């Protein structure tokens, strides 16, 4: 196509009409997101929090205030926090966990040392907690512009919590371990469902994997497959929030850990593969037909005016914790 | 063809003919056919469109069919502006010489008298120029208008909601009240249910906090309300007024409210939808949640008597924000209207009222329009119930509200700046965060839905 004014005109008209049609089409529908499942706002490498959760559950004895979920937190705000919603997420999660009896919250920060911000939230929450920290090595940490799914998030921190459990829990101690990210939503019924876990129990997770829900398929009380839309060839196509491990089983396998170099989506499989086979999974939530946990994600807040002001030296008071 | 040196007239006429051939209207059809009678062959007609054919011995036969084949539809698109221009010129009365133009392999080709072209160029350059400019600008203005308003016809009638639905579940022991209200075009049904169950604890001395939450159906709705309920369960003497943006109360919300065990009232009112648009677009001129909050205010005024009601505080809580438990205790001591900082609003870490040494609010520490009468977010203030009952005409303004002025539309009818009570340690602590939840990417559902729609999420 030769570069003539006529051709340019034609191209222009076509483009404008196409743009008009697109605009009209978008009026009736919500915009269709690009098909990148793990596309997240460009947050600097902050692993999501991760609960780690032994529960004590003999039917007729005293319940010590024990089992911990374990969210771990990103590094500290020096000036403005790389993840500004950290405190809000922790506050919100603590309000849910405060309802659950016999729960111990193990929080592992992705930082060199436990921070005061997180420590303050945990102390004020009223939940029984343990505050740890484990820093992701620089070669496994994405650069600030990288998409969040480039490296598996939270593997090092969850391993740190596993180590804490192995160091502090006795071999025959009853309990259940659950990994809970701080931006997910948990119903109170979920914790009661997982309390009876002996091996590894599973349930559906809502709003994950590009679907309304992902769930294991159950037939006659056993898991026979998985209903998922993304990479179903994974050995355990589950989300981190979709399973819980019995403490005894975990302590019986001292080498089970999360592989930080696992491929995207295979983090859960790298851990569960060392513990059980899919056929041994215990279904919960009414034979995996009810959604009791949702993989919600929080938007990164728009802090454009804040950044402008800070460039001018008139930023908001950093002593006021947000 | 010598297209490079063709005068401007040729190109525009070519476009005119091409649009004409799309079959814009039959009137123009006959007009154009008449003009093209000078052609060697009768214009072939396909689906009502007529295109003059090239008589130059070129092997291509010009055919335009309305979008039957992709290639032809591309020619259609290319031809559209040209034909429009040409027909407009005809209407203007400028009678151009019959020009034979058509497409050959996708290119606009013109033949005709060169002398006449030269004349035409000299005679009426102005009208054509103006027309060409108008036609170039037209699609862009349409595009911008459409994008800006995201509605095609702002004058469409507001949808009338009959509201007289027959869902009456009068369970034993429930006080159910139903009546239809006429409010211009909107008819809503108000039902109330009092459910007093187990904790949160209830004391006779603490003022009740009435938390008004508008909500609408979307994939994360149940999740958001679940975690908000988990928060509210910790607050004593709390009454949750949940107002749905729907035609009738949905079973999902009904069940959720019942299962939480909270003290609640379940209302609903539908924001008028713009049904002419594809999908379910609500009227964008009414800010989201306004009608629902107004309904809650009306319910409060009708339920509580301003003379001998229990002390209460009204707080507007959206379902995606994050609230600390301390916030609810701070607002309990509100006498008129109390305010505090809110995080993650206005593009800042937090927005807050400016408080002087005497403990009075004198301004607003915001970047976005700090000269609003009340430059505060919906989650940043609470009102004493008595004030709501006294000023019984104070509502959120429905229409004609600029962005960020919604809160002011209510507060200016209730209180002045000097009456505001600063909380949260003279507005130095953040107790509420304006978090927003990402819209979940449901790409793998596809068009027909991959997961079982009966499973509630």
UniProtKB/TrEMBL annotation, chain A:
**Keyword set, alphabetical order:** Glycoprotein, Golgi apparatus, Manganese, Membrane, Metal-binding, Signal, Signal-anchor, Transferase, Transmembrane, Transmembrane helix
What Gene Ontology cellular-component terms does the record carry? Answer: Golgi membrane
So which residues are the signal peptide here? 1-23
One Pfam family assigned to this protein is Glyco_transf_43
Q: Name one GO molecular function term.
A: metal ion binding
* Catalytic reaction annotation: 3-O-(beta-D-galactosyl-(1->3)-beta-D-galactosyl-(1->4)-beta-D-xylosyl)-L-seryl-[protein] + UDP-alpha-D-glucuronate = 3-O-(beta-D-GlcA-(1->3)-beta-D-Gal-(1->3)-beta-D-Gal-(1->4)-beta-D-Xyl)-L-seryl-[protein] + UDP + H(+)
Going by the UniProt annotation, this protein carries glycans at 287
Localization: Golgi apparatus membrane; Membrane
Pathway(s) it belongs to? Protein modification; protein glycosylation
Per the entry, which co-factors are needed?
Mn(2+)
Lineage: superkingdom: Eukaryota
InterPro entries, per database record: Glyco_trans_43 (IPR005027), Nucleotide-diphossugar_trans (IPR029044)
Q: How does it sit in the membrane?
A: Single-pass type II membrane protein
Spell out the Pro residues composition-biased ranges: 61-84
Q: Where does Mn(2+) bind?
A: 183
Renumbered to this chain, region (Disordered) spans 49-85, 302-322
Task: Give the E.C. number(s).
Answer: 2.4.1.135
Q: Which family does it belong to?
A: Belongs to the glycosyltransferase 43 family.
Q: What is this protein called?
A: Galactosylgalactosylxylosylprotein 3-beta-glucuronosyltransferase
Which lineage?
A: Eukaryota, Metazoa, Chordata, Craniata, Vertebrata
TrEMBL record, chain B:
Q: Could you name the domain of life of the organism this protein comes from? A: Eukaryota
Give the binding site residues for Mn(2+).
Answer: 320
Task: Give me the segments passing through the membrane.
Answer: 130-148
Q: Does the keyword Secreted apply?
A: yes
Renumbered to this chain, region (Disordered) spans 30-59
Q: Pathway, according to UniProt?
A: Protein modification; protein glycosylation
Per UniProt, the enzyme's principal EC class comes to transferase
UniProt site (Interaction with galactose moiety of substrate glycoprotein) = 351, 444
Q: Which GO terms describe its cellular component?
A: extracellular region; Golgi membrane
Provide the active-site residues from the annotation: 407 (proton donor/acceptor)
UniProt subunit comment: Homodimer. Interacts with SAR1A.
**Name of the molecule in the record:** Galactosylgalactosylxylosylprotein 3-beta-glucuronosyltransferase
User: Which gene specifies this protein's sequence?
Assistant: B3GAT1
